[in-house]
What does this fold into?
Amino acid sequence: MLALLLRDLRLATRAGGGFGLSLAFFLIVTVLVPFGVGPEGGVLARIAPGILWVGALLACLLSLDRIFALDREDGSLDLLATAPIPLEGAVAAKALAHWLTTGLPLTLAAPILGVLLNLPTAGFGWLTLSLLVGTPALSVIGAFGAALTVGLKRGGLLLSLLVLPLYIPTLIFGAEAAKRGAEGLATATPLLMLAGITAGTAAILPFAAAAAIRVNLR
Amino acid sequence: MSIWEYANPKKFMQTSSWALPWVTGMAVVTLLTGLVWGFFFTPDDFRQGSTVKIIYIHVPSAMMAINAWAMMLVTSLIWLVRRHHVSVLAAKAAAPIGMTMTLIALFTGAIWGQPMWGTWWAWDPRLTSFLILFLFYLGYIALWEAVDDPDTAADLTSVLCLVGSVFAILSRYAVLFWNQGLHQGASLSLDKEEHVSDVYAFPLWVSMAGFVLLFVALVLLRTRTEIRARRLRALEARERMA
It folds into this structure.
């Protein structure tokens, strides 16, 4: 599983891996928002946590179809399915690799983009913490969606239709934690719920994703 | 006599062709009774006026929107465990009906909300959950459409239905946490005191029974259509082979 993780990381970071794409997308979405709602500081500060969370979520969505599609094209997914490690473990490793190359960079970039959106100083730590806790759930749920659509030729649009509704609870608790942090309120409840969602999805969804992959490879 | 007998499509077709006219007839009679009674033979509410009568469509359709998903969950499970083909076709048949019920509930709610709350839409937990439920129906139907092989599609949509159910419930409670409600709580109950006066409650129960029967009739009809479509495809395939 470690070898698989390292392989995915290498593939993602080297040429043609699209490593920086989701970061660039996150930047562009964040830059577009002030053009849409106006440059007024107060409004931006109020919506900043929500915008950053939605932006991170969309940036994450953008790279989901790469999780399994490339492996399916060159046949390595078949090899993974017949490999001695359980397919559930392979799915978990690939989701982790996706998080390390997408969720983690997004988390680290979010405070910088927070400056652009006039995020209150108190909010930076909470925003980073909520993204750190919440983005693994995005990767795992996304891996499940990617597993469902891996056999389809044009699965990209369908993937977003399937995955975005599943993202709603994560988004609600994540954005709520970041917003409460920025306003100086207690953040424990939404953060704990967010951690619960991450832990729960990481425990259950690899099984569902592996089942879907087996069906698709049949 | 068990549901496993109906895994045989022929058996299912026989029984359903016998049952369908009866269920349809009962649905028509019950719905007409409930709606006519509700619309014309109940007094106007002293505060809401005649708008209160939307309840006879709003509440039953909302109930069926949730129950249709619950039925899809059960039939999907039966498919995954026992490879019961008719079961998964019934789930496929129920999805568009459930989606329509969700839409009806949302639209009648908006029409009712406009005079009562002064707004067509509010990001109230119940309203939002229904919108999310609608998105889940959309995804489920889209996945059925997208996959060519019927058995693969059945497996994938069943897995999606199981996972989606968990997330639908999760979203329901997440949304409660996220915003305070404008919508009232449950008004009808089997065991607790009710908040709807009997004058309105009796036709409402009849109307709800009518919606259940209508749902059953539509699911039977659509499942029969799916089975026939599949037979047709098998015939065409045989034709090409010959």
